[in-house]
Design brief:
Number of domains: 2
Strand content: 25-35%
Distance between the termini: 53 Å
CATH superfamily of the largest domain: Nucleotide-binding domain of ferredoxin-NADP reductase (FNR) module
InterPro entries: FAD-bd_FR_type (IPR017927), FNR_nucleotide-bd (IPR039261), Riboflavin_synthase-like_b-brl (IPR017938), SIP_FAD-bd (IPR013113), SIP_fam (IPR039374), SIP_rossman_dom (IPR007037)
Protein name: Siderophore-interacting protein
CATH topology of the largest domain: Rossmann fold
Family: Belongs to the SIP oxidoreductase family.
Number of strands: 14
Order of helices and strands: EEEEEEEEHEEHEEHEHEHH
Radius of gyration: 21 Å
Pfam families: FAD_binding_9 (PF08021), SIP (PF04954)
Strand order of the largest sheet: 6-3-9-1-2-8-7
CATH architecture of the largest domain: 3-Layer(aba) Sandwich
CATH class of the largest domain: Alpha Beta
Structural class: alpha/beta
Oligomer: single chain
Helix content: 10-25%
Length: about 300
């Protein structure tokens, strides 16, 4: 009797946590902001109820990166250099489920892997997208949004998602008037543009001073503070919200996107969007309330 043959194992499956999309077109939003419109079959089923996404793209000089494979423990198994893709965290600017498109805005503010990718990206280039995930903006009776140029795509996304009766203030530090954008927002949100006009990014107190000078309504019982941008500024404003304004950690969303004095690669390797333990503790609690495993917060 012939022994039954053993089925031959197929090639390892690609990691389930990412979708492979392609660049459909590019747009110039402002002189220093470039938008990539991505699409493809794998965008089906994607949601925009969160906004943090992982972008995976080929290193410079590599036509097609090697995408991570599904490991036996559920974690991704990454290819070796030079095929390993570059991974960065960005904001889902918008998602059009009907058209099967999403947009990601890149600030062309420095020489780094992501900036160079955004400059050279062209229709047909493949991009991996993971997520979306991250904390949600909680219901509040008064909102504070504060961020620099790198936080503008996220602030724009959040403002568009707020209820029509939301009230509060959004402070956005940008290089100059040419970087202002037309943002959709509730009428009750006051938008203030802070022009650096030559002040060095990350080495000025423009945003910090504006937040500290902003009056908070005495009647607000459930304020929410959203602060993102240069790391030292974010840390200072996080401390201000906790210590001076007495906000609970669940009333604060504060993330550093970059740090003055470190280039994109150095900051990503050292901090990868540095967040304090309060952020992770709060996110794990919110995930538990939604029935999602806490590992998703890591």
């Amino acid at each position: 009797m012939t022994a039954p043959s053993t089925p031959t194992a197929g090639p390892p499956a690609r990691y389930r946590g990412i979708r492979i999309l392609e660049v459909l077109r590019t747009e110039t939003v402002t002189p220093q902001m470039r938008r990539l419109i991505l699409g493809g079959e794998e965008i089906a089923g994607m949601r925009d109820d969160a906004m943090n996404i992982k972008i995976l793209f080929a290193p410079e000089g590599v036509a097609d990166p090697g995408w991570p494979l599904q490991g036996p423990n559920g974690k991704p198994v990454w290819p070796k250099d030079p095929l390993r893709p570059i991974v960065r965290t960005y904001t889902l600017r918008w998602l059009d489920a009907v058209r099967g498109e999403l947009a990601v805005d890149f600030v062309l503010h420095a020489d780094g892997e992501a900036t160079r990718f955004a400059r050279r990206a062209k229709p047909g280039d493949l991009v991996g997208v993971g997520g979306p995930g991250g904390r949600k903006v909680l219901p509040a009776d008064w909102y504070l949004f504060a961020g620099d140029h790198t936080a503008l795509p996220a602030i724009a996304h959040v403002l568009e998602k707020l209820p029509a009766d939301a009230v509060g203030h959004a402070l956005v530090e940008i290089p100059d008037a040419a970087e202002e954008q037309q943002l959709r927002k509730p009428d009750g949100i006051v938008l203030t543009w802070l022009h650096r006009d030559g002040l060095p990014p990350g080495r000025n107190t423009l945003l910090r001073d504006a937040v500290l000078a902003l009056p908070w309504p005495a009647a607000a019982q459930r304020p929410f503070a959203w602060v993102c941008g240069e790391s030292s500024t974010v840390r200072a404003l996080r401390a201000y919200a906790r210590e001076e304004r007495k906000l609970d950690r669940r009333q604060i969303h504060a993330i550093g996107y970059w740090r003055a004095g470190l280039n994109e690669n150095a900051y990503h390797d050292a901090y990868d969007n540095d967040r304090d333990e309060d952020y992770f503790k709060t996110w794990r609690e919110e995930l538990a309330e939604r029935g999602i495993p806490a590992e998703a917060a890591d």
